[in-house]
Amino acid sequence: MKALITGITGFAGSHLAEYLLARGDVEIYGTYRARSRMDHIAHIADRIRLVECELQDREAVEKMIAQIKPEHIYHLAAQSFVPASWSFPAETLMNNIVSQLNIFEAVRMADIPCKIQVACSSEEYGLVYPDELPVQETNPLRPQSPYAVSKIAQDFLGYQYFQSYGLSIVRTRTFNHTGPRRGERFVTSNFAKQIAQIELGLQPPHVYVGNLQARRDFTDVRDVVKAYWLALERGVPGSVYNISSGSTRTIQEVLDTLLSFTSAPVQILVDPKRLRPSDVEVLLGDATAFCEQTGWKPEIPFHQTMRDLLQYWRDTLQAQARTKGGG
Ligand SMILES: Nc1nc2c(ncn2[C@@H]2O[C@H](COP(=O)(O)OP(=O)(O)O[C@H]3O[C@H](CO)[C@@H](O)[C@H](O)[C@@H]3O)[C@@H](O)[C@H]2O)c(=O)[nH]1
C-alpha cells in the first residue's frame, strides 16, 4: 500500500512515518520543501521516499500525485502556529487553503482511488460556551484567529469535494497534541525547552510565559498518528471526527507538570509578547464518534508525554552542545 504524507519532515508527519514504517506493510512517500529541515526524519530517511514539492504550485502537485498514485494521502503540511497567522494572515490562508486545493484537484485529475485525510483543528471551534463542553462535531464554529479560518476553509473544502466529486475524504479535527519533536514555539515544547536550558545553564532561571489561564485538551502525538491511520482505514468518507483525550488542563497545570520533573529553581515571568489579540479560552473535545467508529483510544498518559518531551529537549540540547564543542 502506498501512502503519501505531506509535511513528513514536520512534527506529526515524522511520527506518522515512524508509525507506518512499524506496520511494515506501507510504502511511504513524503513531500518536503527546499527549506525543510531534515533532522526529524534523518533516522528513517533510508526507509522512506522523499519528494521535493511546493504544494502551492499546482503543476508540481499534479505531477507528483500522477507519478506516485498514492492510495492514502495524509495531508499534514500547513502553517500551524496560531500567532504566526496574525503576523502573516495572507500567507497562512494561501498556504493552508491553496495547498489543499491543489492536492484535491490533482487527485481528481489523476482519477485514482485514493483516501485523503485532512488535518483540521479544534481551533475551528474557537469561542466555546461552558454549556457546549465537551465540544461535539456539530458545535458552531466561531474562529478566533486567521489560522482557525484557514482550517475551517480546509475542513469545508474537504466536505465540498466529497459532495461534489465523491473524493474519499475524512476530516480530523485534532485537539492539541504534543510529544518529542514538538516545535519549540508551541507552549508545551517552549516551556520544556526553557526548563532544559535552565538546567544546563544556558539561560537565566526565568521561564517566560503567556496566558496561563487558557485550557486545552492534550493528546500524545504518537496516539494522534494512530488515529490518522484509523481515520482512513475505518472512518466514513465525507465525515468529520474530533480527535481528543476528553480531559482539559490549564496551561498553568502544563507548566506545573513540567516543573515537577526538575529540581532547578525557576521564576515565572509573563512576557506580554506572548499574549494574543484573542485567545481561545477553553477546548475540550468529545471524540466519542471517532472512538466508536474506529476503536481508537488514546493510551499515553499526559504525564508520560510531558516527561518524554522534557527528556527530548535535554537530549537535543546536550547533543547540540557536544557538536559545538567538537566532541
Ligand atoms: N505558544 C505559546 N503559547 C502559550 C504560552 N503561554 C501561554 N500560552 C497559551 O497556551 C495555549 C496553547 O498555545 P499553543 O501551544 O501555541 O497551541 P494552540 O494555539 O492551542 O494551537 C495548537 O493546537 C491547535 C489545535 O487546537 C492546532 O491546530 C495548532 O496547530 C496548534 O498545534 C494558548 O492558549 C496560548 O495562549 C507561550 O509562551 N507560548
TrEMBL record:
InterPro entries: GDP_Man_deHydtase, NAD(P)-bd_dom, NAD(P)-bd_dom_sf. This is GDP-mannose 4,6-dehydratase. Keywords: Lyase. GO terms for molecular function: GDP-mannose 4,6-dehydratase activity. Its cofactor is NADP(+). It catalyses: GDP-alpha-D-mannose = GDP-4-dehydro-alpha-D-rhamnose + H2O. The keyword rRNA processing does not apply. PANTHER family: GDP-MANNOSE 4,6 DEHYDRATASE, GDP-MANNOSE 4,6-DEHYDRATASE. It is an enzyme of class 4 (lyase). GO terms for biological process: 'de novo' GDP-L-fucose biosynthetic process. Its EC number is 4.2.1.47. Belongs to the NAD(P)-dependent epimerase/dehydratase family. GDP-mannose 4,6-dehydratase subfamily. Catalyzes the conversion of GDP-D-mannose to GDP-4-dehydro-6-deoxy-D-mannose. The keyword Disulfide bond does not apply. Residues 4-308 form the NAD(P)-binding domain. It comes from the Bacteria.
